[in-house]
Specification:
The protein is an all-alpha fold. The chain contains 7 helices and no strands. The protein has one domain.
Length: 196
């Protein structure tokens, strides 16, 4: 009897250690996503300050004025949206609002999207789509005797929350790189050409 209890305790400790490993992995990815996001914000601030303070050029033509304005607008947009979405609560709130407003579009796109056949429990790309019950179901495919305690469910909840935040930060970062590249690229190109 005592041997069975010891085996059960070892399996629970092994599952908890595995959950903590998954949590640490997702948390490291979240820190990486936050660092990328912050780096983009600092870059946009730097380019905007340089563009606005070092105006030694004369905006002679209408085309140059429009290009300069486009660059400032792109960089400003990326900076403001980057600052807004840098906070966790803002990302969750924006995600909730967008899902609610675009409910019809999301439902139409679901039919085109392939469901996750075999989610990878170590990858945020799979985890952010799961809820706690789905995670437990998928984990039981790997360990049929897994019975999560209340503590395990709290760890799983935090894993899934961090995966959703990581996804939101990386998607936002990828989106914000476009206006940053347009704004900084055009400024750099025209500065090198001597038009600005």
């Amino acid at each position: 009897m005592q041997k069975e209890n010891t085996n059960t305790q070892q399996k629970e400790d092994g599952a908890r250690a595995e959950l903590k490993f998954i949590y640490a992995n997702i948390f490291d990815l979240l820190k990486f996503a936050e660092a990328k996001h912050a780096r983009l914000i600092v870059f946009n601030i730097g380019v905007l300050v340089a563009a606005l303070t070092n105006r030694t050029f004369v905006l002679e033509t209408v085309v140059v004025k429009y290009i300069y304005t486009l660059c400032i607008v792109c960089l400003g947009f990326a900076l403001i949206l980057g600052l807004i979405t840098h906070a966790h609560w803002a990302i969750e709130e924006i995600h909730r609002i967008v899902k609610h407003e675009c409910k019809i579009v999301i439902c139409q796109r679901k039919s085109k999207k392939k469901p996750i056949v075999s989610p990878n429990l170590y990858c945020w790309k799979s985890l952010f789509r799961l809820n706690i019950e789905d995670f437990i179901y998928e984990y039981r495919k790997l360990d049929s005797e897994f019975t999560p305690s209340e503590f395990d469910k709290q760890i799983i909840h935090q894993i899934l929350a961090n995966a959703k935040i990581t996804n939101a930060k990386l998607v936002t970062y990828n989106f914000l790189t476009y206006p940053t590249i347009i704004g900084a690229g055009l400024l750099g190109f025209f500065y090198l050409k001597g038009l600005l």
